[in-house]
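Request: Mind sharing a record?
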Amino acid sequence: MGVTLRGICSLEEIGADAADAAGAGVVALAALARAGMPVPPAFVLTAEAMRDAFDEANITNKLRGLLAAADPSDRPGLRDVSNRARSLVGAVDAPSCFEQVRASFAQLGGLASVRDAALPDDGTLAAATVALGVATPDELIDAVRAAWAALFTSSALTYRASCGRALDDAACAVIVQRMPPREAWGVARTGAAPGGDAHRIAVEATRDDGGTPDLYECDAGATSVVDRVIVGEPALSDAEALAVAALAVRAERELGGPQEITWSGSDGAPCVLGTRIALAPDHVH
């Protein structure tokens, strides 16, 4: 499958050339799933799904007219335009699209997370989590609307204006992923351990939402933990930290460059929820 992907697709349908439809992060996650890595099932509302939903709800031209009349230099006016645009998107009624969403959610099974996914050359989104623990189709549809509405915040409109882009030149993909059981979660970076050694793997882990994560620095081969900073009760054993580090190493190998994976796990069996290109050590804070 490629850039012509429309509507709602399973993660397995996202091919290497689908970044314009699904975002680079989703393309990378799909590649890891195809490589046999532990990636929870997911489906994706492509950028075209958003555009089709707006057309079905008859708001495309309303948004275009509203945004065309906006003056990016008028901050109070832009905030008003942003509020009105997000109200339109937040009330989108697209039965055909949302019927597919409901069917895909039923097939997914269990609780889900919802994240938006930026398309190439769009700096207004950064694969932000919109909702966790989504349990019902109505909750999911509300989360999808929220992801779409995030394209029309004042900051997003200001960014587009600064790039010389039309304010309505906006679309994103949305990934809906089954939430696996989790005892611990965090991120892991290859080639980017905070503070220094680019040849180490940094594993961050927590068991408390909003808590300060523990840090485990592993050797480049994910064979030993060489340093650790623990906050209270350890989130992981060394063996569990190495299992996460091994996932990051494999992601780097599969995708051809340093990666920062988002992971979750229980019973010592971590899985990959997402990935992106890792920052160099001096850019990690």
Observations:
- DSSP finds nine helices and eleven strands in the chain.
- Residues 206 and 214 are 6 Å apart (CA to CA).
